[in-house]
Amino acid sequence: MTERLVSHLRYAALAVPNFDEETEFFKKHWGLTELERTEDLAYLVAEGSPEPYILRLRRAEKRIDLVAFGTKDRGDLHKLADKLHAEGVQFVHEPRELSQPGGGYGFRVFDGDGRVLEFSTEVELRQSRKIREREPIPVKLSHVVFNSADLNTSAQWYIDHLDFAISDSLVTPDGRELMHFLRTNPHHHSIAIAQGPHHSLHHVSFEMRGIEEWMRGTGKILRSGTRMIWGPGRHNVGDNTFAYFLSPAGNTIEYTTELAVLDEDTWHPSRMDVSDLDTQDQWGTAAEMSELVARESFNDIDKGLFVAPPV
């Protein structure tokens, strides 16, 4: 079994100019619970997750503030920090006690493209609950996907420095890579990186309890008047369901469920042709992927690269 210093995905932090509207959307329609809120910051909880929060929103110019991961303990966290220092990775701050909800101990770095990553341990976990049958709210944060103007270089940074592994890739008919799905534990992917015209957020994905809850959640969001970009369907890569929507801030967000869990000792990555309709959607219920659909997830250029957020 592969041993890694990064154990799992914790939360995503986004800055949005329409902070009040975006926060209300995630509470009223998307199904997250407000943990704590100030004039310019909101920490949002998934009822099924023990993480202190899974989404942080900040009032500011649109950008990815950071994506946070966990380590098993303080020993692994210091091993990771030492490794990244030795490899010349740029630090935002050194390991220290953290002051955000849930506390903990951690550090932040810039990835190869300039996105901020946080690694933490000893976080005070919250009392989560079992999501009820047919309850259409997220259980947890599933994964985060980035766009990159240089896909392979961006993905290789995570492989070289954080020991992420490619689970599968999407390619064009002539073999050109379009997307890599990267794991840090047996779940098929915690992050993915897509080839795009610039560095930006592709989408943030939220795990539902099961197919019934995923479908009911999808219907709930449709009835709220939120625009669906693509879905509902079921991907081949990762074997997970998908329903993509556009949040009020123009970020793509996804309800998903049943993401594959791999036997890492026997798994071999596949290169799946995006022109094969079964690659896009096994069920055939979603519209065929098109440039129009893809363009929505290119998103706005991330203006926060190599600029640490103030919190």
Automatic annotation (TrEMBL):
VOC domain: from which residue to which, for each copy? 8-122, 140-258
Q: In terms of domain of life, where is this protein from?
A: Bacteria
Q: Which InterPro entries match?
A: Glyas_Bleomycin-R_OHBP_Dase, Glyas_Fos-R_dOase_dom, VOC_core
**The protein's name:** Oxidoreductase
Native species = Microbacterium album
